[in-house]
Amino acid sequence: MPRKDELVIRIRPDFTVVVEDTENGTVSCKEITPDSLLECIEASVKLGAVSSGVLPQGCVSYSKGEAGVKICVEYPSRRCDIRYEKTVYPNFPLPRLIFGFNIRDGGQISGVDLCVAGEGMLTPKTPLYVYPFSNVFGFSLCCGTNRLPPVKSPHQLMGVMHFIMSMPNNNDHYSPDNSKLGLEYRHLLETLKDKEPSFYYSDVLIPSGKTLNDFI
């Protein structure tokens, strides 16, 4: 004669949980806490490995959730050619920039964040500074009408960062109050173009009160 084994979990209106175990016709009941039930379920769930793919050089963090993936990457250079309106500033000095890319499952970049980080080894407590240039509000980077290319692999974000840095700047979201110098944008760029990157940390940047952990 076949055994009649059964396990029934009953959740009462007051959220108490009763486990009813029938083994070979014998019924036993036990009351457990909701936390215990959750722990049992979590312990029984087996998740497969999640591969990030090849990460870009300077990757700071990688996280994956229901909305997609967020990858934070340090910009690899402290100088680049930038353009303000129709003026090109070659080999322009930069502070330490970190990008945050929000990527949907299809590889489409749904949003880009940008921050200025302190010097030294990066940790969750690394201080951040107010972004001194234009096109950034809070952490959010405005790309205007420029359409960012989709990425099939995270390592392609290196090229996306260079593409973003090559886009022309305007006065959107710029304020003289975003730096210690208090200059209008063109005057700021003219002042900085011959300086060393370290000049930002001694004479330009204003602490934001936030840390790298807030950005991530």
Q: What is the N-to-C succession of helices and strands?
A: EEEHEEEEEEEEEHHHEH
* Low-pLDDT windows of residues: none
**What is the number of beta strands?**
13
Q: How much helix, percentage-wise, in residues?
A: 10-25%
Structural class: alpha+beta
As for the number of domains, it is 2
Total helical elements: 5
Give the amount of beta strand, in percent: 35-45%
Mean pLDDT metric: 91
How large, in whole angstroms, is the Cα Rg?
A: 26 Å
Please give the alpha-carbon distance between the first and last residues.
60 Å
The biggest sheet, with number of strands, parallel, antiparallel or mixed sense and barrel status, is: 6 strands, antiparallel
Shape assignment: elongated
Biggest sheet, spatial arrangement of strands: 4-5-8-9-10-13
Structural notes for this entry:
The structure is a single chain. By secondary structure, the protein is an alpha+beta fold. It folds into 2 domains: 6-44; 59-215, no CATH class. The chain has 5 helices and 13 strands. The protein has helices at residues 34-44, 157-166, 185-192, 198-204, 212-215; strands at residues 6-11, 17-23, 26-32, 59-65, 68-74, 79-84, 87-93, 96-103, 109-117, 127-129, 136-137, 140-141, 207-211. The strands form 4 sheets. Strands 4-5-8-9-10-13 form a 6-stranded antiparallel β-sheet. Strands 1-2-3 form a 3-stranded antiparallel β-sheet. A two-stranded antiparallel sheet has the order 6-7. The longest helix has 11 residues, at 34-44. The chain is elongated. The model has no long low-confidence stretch (mean pLDDT 91).
